[in-house]
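User: I'm new to structure prediction. If I give you an amino acid sequence, what do you actually give back? Let's try with this one:
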Amino acid sequence: MSKAEKTRQFIIERTASIFNTKGYMSTSLSDITEATGLTKGSIYGNFENKDEVAIEVYRYNASQLSKIMSRSFGDEFPTTVDKLYAFVAFYRKNWRSVFSNGGCPIMNAATEADDSFPALKNQVKESFEIWTHKISGVIQQGQKNGELNPDVHPDEYAALFIMLIEGGILLSKTTDEEKFLNLALDRITQIIDCELIILSS
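Assistant: Good question. You get back a string of structure tokens that encode the predicted 3D arrangement of the chain. For your 201 residues, that looks like this:
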């Protein structure tokens, strides 16, 4: 990495939690300079404007979540059923750290991703598409392997899982009650057990 690239990365990493907690629209240039110890000139010397910082920080936050979440779908889990269970377990085990860093970065950005910030809206849309594709891909593989019900629509179930998780996170974070996220995760587990897994006769 060049010196300029290292500086950009430094700014992104030092402000990632602030943007996710305070908001991509609400985080100010003074917040950025305070977090980094850099001057306004240094920030604008590496980014065109604050919106560009916000977009790059969102990409960083979303990619960090994606990397951690993708471990659930790794080779250490031999079956697609194991992968789906591991996906649910990830949120059970990591909800506290997710909440302490401001909550789900995709959901947080989605609440701000209206017509006033179309670039952020496009990034959030892409994140949801990637997330849907990953879960759908696991379900499709399970169907090919004969583990999962061949009659279900993978994209629909992937979207349902995301809706349940995001809704659970929203309610739990708002009320400071873990039970709402667990309720959503319990429902996903029930769907996996009762609708996706092919039971041997």
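You can read the tokens as a compact description of the fold. Here is one thing that stands out. DSSP finds nine helices and no strands in the chain.
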